Amino acid sequence: MLKLTLVLVTKLTIQSRAFADLLKTSLDCETGFISNEMELENLDRALNPLLLVDVANLPNIDDRCWQIQFDTNLSQVHIVLLNTSKKFDKQDLLDWPNCCGIFPQSSSLVLLLQGMRKILAGEYWLPRTMMCQLLQHYRKEDIHPEQPMVSLTRRECDVLRLVTECKSNIDIANALFVSEHTVKSHLYKVFKKTEVKNRTQAANWAKDNPSAFKQLQRYDNK
Fold it and tell me: Is 65:71 a contact under the CB 8 Å cutoff?
């Protein structure tokens, strides 16, 4: 079993600290917190992080900071959603990339620990109704309609081209002779324009929309 670090995305309280200690003892995992922007920026230092996002007690972190720091650098990090409401549905789940587990507010501690052990073993833990909704969703998307033309700048196209080649932010910065911060800024704009959540989805968008991506092809030929 791959050793993971459980990182709780929640407000730092006595209760959340006690919960982290319980997880560490019960699951034999290292635990950490993201309760502010500095801890979010340091997430990439954690060993194989698995994010446990407490959606009922999210910390006060600027949305743009979250978008840039998480989506551009850690799009492959898996997450587990805690304390979801009864109204939480398929569309809400799709807003969280790489979600591998959901625990509603009504989940008992015994059930939560049981589900977490399954997740740590490489399995998924989702409500049956949610699984059915996701199956129907992806079956309907077997044929993807082509998106309309998206206006990307030349530099945004350059960055997106390197993203499709699985280059890291540092690699992209070196290739384009710009700072890593500039790369993050371009990626953030690309995500907004193409209406995607992370770099994996951006790369898929580029592959699925060749006609909308003519700018990139044109710049490659120069």
Answer: no
178 token code pair: 């710009």
Rg (Cα) of the chain, in Å, rounded? 19
Task: Tell whether pTM > 0.70.
Answer: no
Rounded CA separation 32/21 (Å): 10
DSSP designation for 212: G
Residue in 53, 68, 42 with CA at minimum distance from that of residue 9: 53
Cβ 34 vs Cβ 9: under 8 Å? yes
Tell me phi and psi for residue 176, to 5 degrees. Answer: -100, 0
Q: Is 222 a residue whose pLDDT tops 50?
A: no
Residue among 149, 145, 144, 147 at smallest CA distance from 215: 149
* Better-scored residue on pLDDT, 73 or 157: 157
Task: Find out whether 15 and 39 touch, Cβ atoms under 8 Å.
Answer: no
pLDDT in tens, 198-212: 888 888 888 877 665
pLDDT digits (tens, 9 = 90+) for 76-135: 788 899 999 888 887 777 777 788 999 999 999 999 999 999 999 989 998 888 877 777
Distance of CA 50 to the CA centre of its chain: 11
| Alpha carbons 133 and 170: distance in angstroms, whole number | 38
DSSP string, 76-104: T--EEEEEE-TT--HHHHHTSTTEEEEEE
